[in-house]
Here is the input.
Amino acid sequence: MSVAITLVACAKTFADGTQAMGPLDLEIRPGETIVFLGPSGCGKTTTLRLIAGLESPNSGGRVLFDDADVTAVPIERRNVGMVFQSYALFPNMTVAGNIDYGLRVRRLSSAARAARVDEMLAMMKIGELRHRRVDQLSGGQKQRVALARALAPQPRVLLLDEPLTALDAKLRDVLRIEIDALLRRLRMTAVYVTHDQAEAMALGDRIVVMSQGKVAQVGRPRDVYFTPQSRFVAEFVGTMNRLRGVARDGHLEVMGGRIPWRGREAGEVEALFRPERATIVEPGAGQVKGRVATSFFLGDRTRLVVDGVSDGSLIVETTDRRDFQPGQDVHLVIDADALLTLDR
Ligand SMILES: Nc1ncnc2c1ncn2[C@@H]1O[C@H](COP(=O)(O)OP(=O)(O)O)[C@@H](O)[C@H]1O
Ligand SMILES: [Mg+2]
Here is the structure.
């Protein structure tokens, strides 16, 4: 049932000359959830629309579903389900009417359609909303209806374009967990577009990080997070600290002290590390010393902005329950294995 999707040399130049993306080559595996992640305007939606059949690639580009070339196949014959940030539901129709809409164009008996609507209402836990008009629903409820509508005709692939972006933070978390469980249960090929790196990490079997119409890196969330291949990926996915200093005699010397250095580079270097790779220690046990500029109590941990270690501020996170005050000195140990050097 689930389909592999292959993009071959897919580029898109719009009529006004905007080069939105590509050329891009990508293989999406059957049943996987692949997330396109990147800043606004990098070409995520355009890529999704190419897969859907809402746009066609520049000549030479091809889209395959399994072995079939669907480049010239219009959306209504690609059998894809779509969910948008803006819901795109029929506001004056009922919830059940919206879900049924996609089934009406198929040759199904009305009994089969009704059964399928019931099944979708139950799956999305919105049975009690069945007779409500869509314009009377909350954002989270609308997105549940949109998912039910997209899935009702049993599409071969589910395409989601920033489906949670319009929702508030708490609801976003709840729905993200539900969508994740749903995709795993259905084992359906899914392409999910977001600019939110936490969402991408949580949902993706693989993440395609995009920048300015190009693929910056493709990999499992942990690969992208731990071994970014470029500075762009390192800094876009998660938080990254920069240390500027001089590498010599097995140490990286920075403004606030020195850290063991295992890199091959010598002389002036810029090293990157993740906030969780620094530990706050007692004075005397630290490699570097800095000063708390701001602290944010997050409940389970505290996020500190630390100045004076390098020329820019560092972000450090700690589960230490102390109340850190601005101006206070902090002593840090930074894991030598955590230091990355990326020259582009
Ligand atoms: N129909 C269009 N005509 C002209 N330019 C477009 C059109 N759609 C998108 N673009 C441009 O293509 C680029 C990529 O857009 P898009 O794929 O929507 O990015 P994203 O979804 O990552 O924010 C942007 O510069 C955008 O302005
Ligand atoms: Mg978009």
